[in-house]
């Protein structure tokens, strides 16, 4: 599947194994999620647009390239996506940030929106949608729909763990979207949790359950 990129770096595997452990507490969980997001961003940002600049080194005048980070917009899906936001901003500090609040209806598994606030988006913006768990794909597809409605076109998804079912749902409806994840797990269980997964990322980040 050309849309899917699994970043299986040894450091990511190591950190993800610690995050999966049910005994890992929220402080370490948050730190590890930020660290893995940094590594994912390095890969996902390979095609960011750059501009040529003049640079004066201690030796001579030369030309260099800098990322046009003001054309980058990050959209974390609340609330778990917030755990990835600082990792991306560490590398692209001048990026704009949009927020989308979505929760999954426990009965229908449909995405229910409760908050949306985006900066202005254009076709040449590079947009990164963040959600640690790409499970059913319904919340992600809702986020993609909202981004496109606002005028965004170049969309990359960044997730910690993805389920095959969620990837298929996203790609089937949005074949133009690229997905970067740290792991493609086995499946969804009857409650639409990723197996083996790591539980509810939001609850583990903020100890809300």
Automatic annotation (TrEMBL):
<keyword id="KW-0021">Allosteric enzyme</keyword>
<feature type="binding site">
    <location>
        <position position="194"/>
    </location>
    <ligand>
        <name>uracil</name>
    </ligand>
</feature>
<dbReference type="InterPro" id="IPR050054">
    <property type="entry name" value="UPRTase/APRTase"/>
</dbReference>
<keyword id="KW-0342">GTP-binding</keyword>
<dbReference type="InterPro" id="IPR005765">
    <property type="entry name" value="UPRT"/>
</dbReference>
<dbReference type="GO" id="GO:0006223">
    <property type="term" value="P:uracil salvage"/>
</dbReference>
<dbReference type="InterPro" id="IPR000836">
    <property type="entry name" value="PRTase_dom"/>
</dbReference>
<dbReference type="InterPro" id="IPR034332">
    <property type="entry name" value="Upp_B"/>
</dbReference>
<feature type="binding site">
    <location>
        <position position="79"/>
    </location>
    <ligand>
        <name>5-phospho-alpha-D-ribose 1-diphosphate</name>
    </ligand>
</feature>
<comment type="similarity">
    <text>Belongs to the UPRTase family.</text>
</comment>
<keyword id="KW-0808">Transferase</keyword>
<dbReference type="GO" id="GO:0005737">
    <property type="term" value="C:cytoplasm"/>
</dbReference>
<feature type="binding site">
    <location>
        <position position="104"/>
    </location>
    <ligand>
        <name>5-phospho-alpha-D-ribose 1-diphosphate</name>
    </ligand>
</feature>
<dbReference type="GO" id="GO:0044206">
    <property type="term" value="P:UMP salvage"/>
</dbReference>
<dbReference type="InterPro" id="IPR029057">
    <property type="entry name" value="PRTase-like"/>
</dbReference>
<feature type="binding site">
    <location>
        <position position="200"/>
    </location>
    <ligand>
        <name>5-phospho-alpha-D-ribose 1-diphosphate</name>
    </ligand>
</feature>
<protein>
    <recommendedName>
        <fullName>Uracil phosphoribosyltransferase</fullName>
        <ecNumber>2.4.2.9</ecNumber>
    </recommendedName>
</protein>
<keyword id="KW-0547">Nucleotide-binding</keyword>
<dbReference type="GO" id="GO:0000287">
    <property type="term" value="F:magnesium ion binding"/>
</dbReference>
<comment type="function">
    <text>Catalyzes the conversion of uracil and 5-phospho-alpha-D-ribose 1-diphosphate (PRPP) to UMP and diphosphate.</text>
</comment>
<feature type="domain" description="Phosphoribosyltransferase">
    <location>
        <begin position="6"/>
        <end position="208"/>
    </location>
</feature>
<feature type="binding site">
    <location>
        <begin position="131"/>
        <end position="139"/>
    </location>
    <ligand>
        <name>5-phospho-alpha-D-ribose 1-diphosphate</name>
    </ligand>
</feature>
<feature type="binding site">
    <location>
        <begin position="199"/>
        <end position="201"/>
    </location>
    <ligand>
        <name>uracil</name>
    </ligand>
</feature>
<keyword id="KW-0460">Magnesium</keyword>
<dbReference type="GO" id="GO:0005525">
    <property type="term" value="F:GTP binding"/>
</dbReference>
<dbReference type="Pfam" id="PF14681">
    <property type="entry name" value="UPRTase"/>
</dbReference>
<keyword id="KW-0328">Glycosyltransferase</keyword>
<comment type="pathway">
    <text>Pyrimidine metabolism; UMP biosynthesis via salvage pathway; UMP from uracil: step 1/1.</text>
</comment>
<dbReference type="GO" id="GO:0004845">
    <property type="term" value="F:uracil phosphoribosyltransferase activity"/>
</dbReference>
């Amino acid at each position: 599947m050309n849309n899917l990129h699994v970043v299986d770096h040894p450091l990511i595997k190591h950190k993800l194994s610690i995050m999966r452990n049910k005994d890992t507490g929220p402080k370490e969980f948050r730190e590890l999620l930020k660290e893995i997001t940094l590594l994912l961003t390095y890969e996902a940002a390979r095609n960011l647009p750059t501009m040529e600049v003049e640079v004066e080194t201690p030796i001579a005048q030369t030309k260099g390239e800098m990322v046009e980070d003001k054309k980058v917009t990050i959209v974390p899906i609340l609330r778990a996506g917030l755990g990835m936001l600082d990792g991306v901003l560490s590398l692209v500090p001048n990026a704009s940030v949009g927020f989308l609040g979505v929760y999954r209806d426990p009965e229908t598994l449909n995405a229910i929106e409760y908050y949306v606030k985006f900066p202005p988006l254009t076709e040449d913006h590079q947009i990164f949608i963040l959600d640690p768990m790409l499970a059913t794909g319904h919340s992600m597809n809702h986020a993609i729909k909202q981004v496109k409605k606002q005028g965004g076109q170049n969309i990359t998804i960044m997730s910690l763990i993805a389920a095959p079912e969620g990837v298929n749902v996203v790609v089937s409806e949005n074949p133009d979207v690229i997905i970067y994840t740290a792991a493609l797990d086995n499946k969804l269980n009857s409650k639409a949790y990723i197996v083996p997964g790591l539980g509810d990322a939001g609850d583990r980040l903020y100890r809300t359950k």
